[in-house]
Task: structure prediction
Amino acid sequence: MRGLASRFIESRSGAFAPILIVMMIPLITAVGFSVDYTSAVQTRSTEQAALDAAILSITTMDTASTKAQRQVAMQASYVANGGQGAATLNTFDVSANGTATAQASASFAMPTVFMQIARIPTVAVGVTSAVSKTPALVQATFNVDHVSGYWNKTMTVYGLPFGSTSTTTPTAMMKVDYVYKGYSYSYTSGGKTYTAADPKGYGTTTISTVSGTTQTQVQSQVCTTVGSKTDFTPTAGVYRSTAVAKSGNTSGSTIYFKTTCATTNTAGNSSGATIDVSTMDQLYLQMNVPSGPVNPLKSNDASTSNRLYLGAGYGTAAQKTLDPSLYLPVEVAGNAIVDIFAAVPCGETSDQAWEDGGNNPPLPDVTNADFFYSVMGKCDFNRRPSDTLLTQ
Result:
């Protein structure tokens, strides 16, 4: 056979066409193989994107979902995103700190076109994907620090559960109510009575958890103010303000107001109002100030959210004491929607505050605020989207 082929090539009397055809066979085969290879590369890219989308989708399923249920959901998502063949959820684990990790793979026997000439009917296309999802906020504990101002006001935490629509009524979860109690200081001199009112104004604040129409008080704070013509240096939990006493149009002495606030937790409650937000898809804060020029104020309203101040999280009071300026609440930028889930740190405390509407932003100095509180978050594995990273 080899000798025949040699004589065929060396022959000068034969036609050129047979020679050309023989020479083109390997060329056509090579081109055909490259077409199938390109198709396999494109298929693999599609499979990878579909598997990535599928594994991400199952991280937001209900926490009670079994691995088998996640497998079914992942396969459905994989197919819906253009994946072919079978996707397999190899692992889905949740660590003690609430971090979820998952690993999946998918395979597809892609039919070939030209490679069938070489008796290769299919090419195996396989992809893998892995994901890591950080814990999400599931619980928040609010504690009142101090509240001031002449206007009564109420801060409420509202939530919208998973599956909510535009017609869903927000759920009230926690309320902080402040009632102003005025204080004035008077003294007599030269037959005239001089009077000064505390310019900040303090009162009584109560914090309650809310379940349906039932409010359960868990904490209260009573602030007591005294006036004096003698100045003093305020200590922690003591607030100082000043005003000039007047008798008609006549000015008298500067009066120094010393306000002390005492916070009491109800029996059986060790710290503030703790609310379960694990079933909530959205959270927002609302400040009602009936006598104020702007009412209500909302964290999810871009026109009023800049009256809210948010502080960085700290682990302990000692950590905060090392550099208090690092943890001072910072005014929210104008025209911003505040993500409360991001504003409440995991396992740390954030000092926060509201300006009740008496002053117009921008007001970068947080001392302009009237409503100070702290909030600590607890995070765990949750269906809510959080920082989720593809790791493979």
Notes: The helical segments are 2-10, 16-57, 67-80, 317-322, 340-343.
